[in-house]
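Entry for alpha-D-ribofuranose complex. Fields follow.
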Amino acid sequence: MRMSTTIILDCDPGIDDALAIAFAAGHPELEIAGITSVAGNVELAKTTANALAVASFVGVPRPAREAADGHAIDFIIERTAAAPGEITLVATGPLTNIALALRREPRLPLWVRDFVIMGGSAGRGNVNHAAEYNIWADPEAASIVFGAGWTVRMIGLDVTLRARATAAVQERMREFGALGAELLLPALGQYADSHTTGAPAVHDVCAVVSVAAPSVFTYTPALVQVETTGRLTSGMTVTDFSPSISPNALVATDIDVDRFWKLVLETYESLAARMG
Ligand code: RIB
Ligand code: CA
């Protein structure tokens, strides 16, 4: 019997967030308890509208035209409190909602099964030399989140920059009917770097893949602290891999790119078949 993992996806669609929603919707062992939205790539009203549109397009969860009443923070707290140890929280945008949820309910780390983010980097940044976008956008929130007493599974730029939708990957996506033609390929086409490299990185998909198939990545324990005040380094995830430190994170340090794309494309293929 297949064991499924229930997730709440806090996201800011966003191009790769949309691809991450589609992956979560298509994977047979992932169950989406809810999608919450946060300001990031665009303002909150737009990330919410985009999340609704994508969820509705791929048919999950219960296609809705409007966001549910209430705040994302309350939803996250209520759902995890109701099923302690069962829900994996995945964040693919700035960590604003997660930090606010922790402020309101410090027991959140006790209730989640796992906490996974796309964000940060043990090496270079992408907004600037030091910082990755999701951390840079709200470094105070990220600092609260890394200091909350749980183990953050950090899927950062060290690995996500290697998960690139190459020409061959995009060619496969052309076989996926409306899913490919109306969501995956137009989304990839919007990436600024798709015009330069032709092979954009699908950062946020990596975080959801790490829930569905953790062994696609290699993880190294580390102490991650977020720079909140540096003039040149605000949003930097200062990552210490020394064996003597007390870790607060499992940082993805390697990715099996072939396995990653095999899984992602198979999942999209089965979602496309379901969508008809
Ligand atoms: O740095 C990559 C992250 O920021 C992703 O979550 C993506 O959506 C982008 O805006
Ligand atoms: Ca995102």
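NOTE: The chain has a mean pLDDT of 95.
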